[in-house]
Structure formats: structure tokens, C-alpha cells
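// run 5 | inverse folding | seed 20
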């Protein structure tokens, strides 16, 4: 699988070359190589970190390339990041009426990973 990741320009990360995909210039192979990923999990996270990502919510588009790397065959929106580092406690009986009064659900490290 040949894929490249395109971070959203307003996400607070170091920008990619704005001319990278404008079609007017040849794509810099070094820049393209920095954006290449082999999977939709750890490679996405590692590549975003290279551009200064600090685990805050961010959206990107992953482009799947043709076998010859000349055209884009598909694209997929990918979201990453932590929504909060705090724990959230929810009374269980607010979700399940039959739950015990003191029952709680603890939610921590919520992410927006998609």
C-alpha cells in the first residue's frame, strides 16, 4: 500500500510545502517520502509527530496512490488526538436505570482517533 498523509493546514503543526500538490511543479521526492505511511495507525501518528503534532485533535486526509505513484486512487479522512487528559465520571444509573445508585463509569484518555 502506498499512501501519503496530508495534515490539515490550520492544525498548528509545521506546514508542508504549499506547492506539493498544486500540479504546477514536480513533487519533491524527499517531502513526499516524509509523508508516506504504510498503515493507518502507528505510521499516521509517527508522521504527524514529525510535523510537530503534540497529540491534540487533528484531521488529515490520507491519499492512496496508484502502483506507479502517478495518480491518487482514493482518499480517506483520518482524525487523531486526545480530547481530554482528565477523567470523566458518569453515574451509571443515568444510562441504565436499573444500575446501582453508587455505580459509576470512568472514562479516561478519550481520543478522536478515526
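// decoded
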Amino acid at each position: 500500500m502506498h499512501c501519503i498523509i496530508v495534515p490539515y493546514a490550520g492544525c498548528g503543526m509545521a506546514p508542508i510545502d504549499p506547492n506539493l500538490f498544486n500540479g504546477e511543479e514536480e513533487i519533491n521526492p524527499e517531502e513526499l517520502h516524509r509523508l508516506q505511511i504504510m498503515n493507518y495507525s502507528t505510521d499516521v501518528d509517527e508522521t504527524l509527530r514529525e510535523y510537530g503534532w503534540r497529540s491534540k485533535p487533528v484531521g488529515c486526509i490520507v491519499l492512496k496512490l496508484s502502483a506507479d505513484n502517478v495518480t491518487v486512487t482514493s482518499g480517506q479522512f483520518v482524525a487523531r488526538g486526545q480530547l481530554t487528559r482528565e477523567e470523566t465520571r458518569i453515574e451509571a444509573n443515568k444510562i441504565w436505570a436499573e444500575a446501582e445508585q453508587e455505580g459509576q463509569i470512568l472514562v479516561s484518555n478519550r481520543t478522536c482517533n478515526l
